[in-house]
Design a protein that fits this description.
This protein is of the alpha/beta class and about 525 residues long. Helices cover about 35% and strands about 15% of the residues. The strands form four sheets. An eight-stranded mixed sheet has the order 10-9-8-5-4-3-1-11, with helices on one face. Strand 13 and strand 14 form a beta hairpin. The longest helix is centred in the C-terminal third of the chain and has 27 residues. The structure holds FE(8)-S(7) cluster and iron/sulfur cluster.
């Protein structure tokens, strides 16, 4: 046993990529962008930008790999992978894998056959569902038979659906060939550290080749396997996203180094997510009082990495059985009982026709934004403000304040409107009445914003928001978000320039930590 351990450790030195691998990685780096920064323009609101056509094909309707697409296209997960091979201190195995899910969520586990039926049922009902992901409830590659059987069944029955996989990376190098053979074009690896000393504070153990490794020894195996897997995937032309959980005081400063390490190995996108940690989740971090970051701490870290590569900021930390647009949860419509009774009518032509309509709307949105941007040409100012937006999709301001379960946050500057995050909130409107406790938590969640854009808002919350220094704005109801935000910023700047108003910085905001069961 000891010999086996030494043997496996000896093989686990970090591999330097070969010349051929480096060449392929360089071609993939920055999602095909030209220029030396390696910064990807995918995931931005810019649409195709300077992405190579083959990369654009992969990301254009993937809601996680393109921020712009996430307003229009949906994903679904099937919970076919219950086992896990490592332990993370932010995870309680009673619940779903917290690398892609909010803590405290329990998904309904499926067999590959049930999963295939569910995919067809959802694809028939939600024609803009374009991506199937396997992300738990454990680690998909700790359950390779179930994971790949599911992909096999779906490839046969629903060939237009993109396949996606999210893993902790421990077993990744062993499965790259299979991943490629199933045409899984998108793989996420959760990488929280590249330094085993830091890793030992996050991972108490990893189970590898029939042996449990603890502390630094375990973390060393994990980081080497993760980075090797990343190199192999990017060399194989598979788009890789890296998820990192930001744990203040543990790996927050270190994630800049992680960002550099994954960028140099060809990662396409980096998604830094906040630690969600509360005692009721029963995790080591929850029980020991480890806090998550504030909204501005998270944004500052994402901003500091953005010069290096493109950052994903629209992740919703989905459940392992999530269905719908990111930020909406339609999983309750597709429980096993319901899908087994559903008549499935998987019609490719209907799906394609619907998606063509979505594309027309999407192009209209981009054109409206570009036209509005022209009005900011020549403006010079360092002022930046955040605005919160109530939306239920389509890139429009189309949600009532009282019905919003989350607000999308945009940063406005003379460069335009940029999506920088979202804030989950408690519903303000409960059973027809406004809930004052919820309003307080909503204000805490968007406290760094100057305004909140809504389709409609009642008089009472309007006054309270104004008193908190957040301007409720309903004049852009049902209009495109970015176009409206740019118009608002232009007016804001004019008022500041004329002296009618003074620009003041806002404070920090809170990311909701507890009771994340929905
Ligand atoms: Fe799922 Fe992940 Fe694929 Fe997306 S989710 S496996 S890449 S299809 Fe997306 Fe959800 Fe964030 Fe994941 S918002 S948790 S990043
Ligand atoms: Fe939990 Fe996912 Fe970590 Fe496994 S990889 S311990 S399921 S968070």
């Amino acid at each position: 046993m000891r010999e086996q351990a030494q043997d496996s450790m000896a093989k686990l030195t970090i591999l330097q990529p070969s010349g051929e691998v480096m060449q392929k990685m360089a071609e993939q780096k920055g999602c095909g962008t030209k220029g030396g920064s390696g910064k990807a323009s995918c995931g931005s609101a810019a649409g195709q930008g300077d992405l190579a056509p083959e990369i654009w094909e992969k990301v254009k309707n993937h809601p996680c790999y393109s921020e712009e697409a996430h307003h229009h296209y949906a994903r679904m997960h099937v919970a076919v992978a219950p086992a896990c091979n490592i332990q993370c201190n932010y995870c309680n195995r009673k619940y779903d894998c917290a690398n892609e899910s909010r803590p405290g969520v329990v998904s309904e586990k499926l067999t590959p056959e049930q999963a295939a039926k569910k995919v067809l049922a959802v694809a028939s009902t939600i024609p803009q569902m374009t991506v199937l992901g396997i992300a738990g409830p454990g680690d998909p590659l700790a359950n390779p038979e179930k994971t790949f059987k599911t992909f096999e069944l779906i490839t046969k029955t629903a060939p237009d659906i993109k396949l996606c996989l999210s893993t902790n990376g421990l077993m990744l190098p062993d499965h790259v060939e299979t991943i490629k053979s199933f045409k899984v074009d998108h793989v996420t690896i959760t990488i929280n550290m590249v330094d085993p000393e830091i890793g030992a504070k996050i991972y108490p153990w990893v189970f590898y080749k029939h042996k449990r490794y603890t502390g630094v020894e375990g973390a060393k195996i994990l980081t080497e396997r993760q980075l090797l897997g990343l190199e192999m995937l990017t060399a194989a032309g598979i788009l890789c996203k890296v998820n990192s959980v930001m744990i203040p005081g543990v790996n927050d400063q270190h994630l800049v180094e992680v960002n550099r390490a994954v960028k140099s190995r060809g990662a396409f996108l980096h998604n830094i997510m906040p630690l969600i940690s509360a005692p009721e989740h029963g995790t080591v971090f929850g029980l020991t009082g480890q806090r998550g970051p504030s909204a501005q701490e998270l944004k500052a870290l994402q901003d500091s990495c953005e010069g290096e590569m493109n950052m994903m900021r629209h992740c919703r930390q989905c459940r392992a059985d999530a269905v719908g647009l990111l930020g909406e949860d339609r999983s309750a419509e597709f429980t096993t009982d319901k899908i087994m009774e559903m008549d499935v009518n998987y019609d490719l032509a209907t799906r394609q026709a619907y998606q063509e309509k979505v594309e027309v709307e999407r192009q209209a949105k981009v054109a409206a934004k570009q036209a509005e941007l022209v009005t900011l040409a020549g403006e010079r100012s360092d002022i930046k403000i955040l605005v919160a937006v109530a939306t239920k999709g389509g890139g429009r301001i189309n949600e009532h304040f009282g019905h919003a379960k989350e607000f999308q946050v945009y940063e406005l500057s003379t460069a335009g409107a940029k999506f920088v995050g979202h804030r989950r909130v408690d519903l303000y409107c409960q059973g027809g009445f406004g809930e004052e406790d919820s309003l307080e938590t909503i204000i805490r969640a968007i406290n760094d914003c100057h305004a909140v854009f809504v389709a409609k808002i009642g008089g009472c919350p309007k006054n309270t928001l104004q008193q908190a220094g957040i301007e409720p704005v309903d004049k852009y109801a049902l209009q495109f978000i970015e176009q409206s935000a740019i118009a608002y910023f232009k007016e804001y700047m004019e008022k500041v320039k004329s002296g009618e108003m003074q620009h003041v910085e806002r404070g920090d905001a809170a990311i909701r930590q507890g009771a994340l069961l929905a």
